[in-house]
Amino acid sequence: MVIEKVKQLDETQARLVLAWLQALERAGVPSGQPAGAVAMLGFARRFSSQPLTTAEWIAELRAGERE
Q1: What is the rounded CA–CA span in Å between residue 7 and residue 5?
Q2: What is the rounded CA–CA span in Å between residue 61 and residue 63?
Q3: Are the C-beta atoms of residues 60 and 52 closer than 8 Å to each other?
Q4: Centroid of chain to Cα 58
Q5: At a CB cut-off of 8 Å and minimum separation 6, what does 39 contact?
Q6: Cβ contact 12:20 at 8 Å
Q7: What angle do CA 16, 19, 24 make, to 5 degrees?
Q8: Coil, strand, or helix at residue 36?
Q9: How confident is the model at residue 6 (pLDDT cuts 50, 70, 90)?
């Protein structure tokens, strides 16, 4: 299906698509490590073996602000 779509493009557009695909290949495969907020779940678990409620987290953060 992809090949058929590329065949319908003019040469300039086809070159852009191919350049984009090559850039993706050079970027490599993601490491599988979570990013953003999901990564923080594992990070927070290292310091607290028990899950905390939202209220407990907020209290801890506010305590840090007062220090």
Answers
A1: 5
A2: 5
A3: yes
A4: 25
A5: 33
A6: no
A7: 125
A8: coil
A9: confident
> What is the spatial distance between Cα 34 and Cα 15, in angstroms, rounded to a whole number?
33
Residue 9, both tokens: 């493009």
Residue 25 region, left (φ>0) first, then alpha (ψ -120 to 50), else beta? alpha
Q: How confident is the model at residue 31 (pLDDT cuts 50, 70, 90)?
A: low
17, 6 Cβ separation under 8 angstroms: yes
> The tokens of 48 are what?
């607290």
Location of structure tokens 């299906």: 1
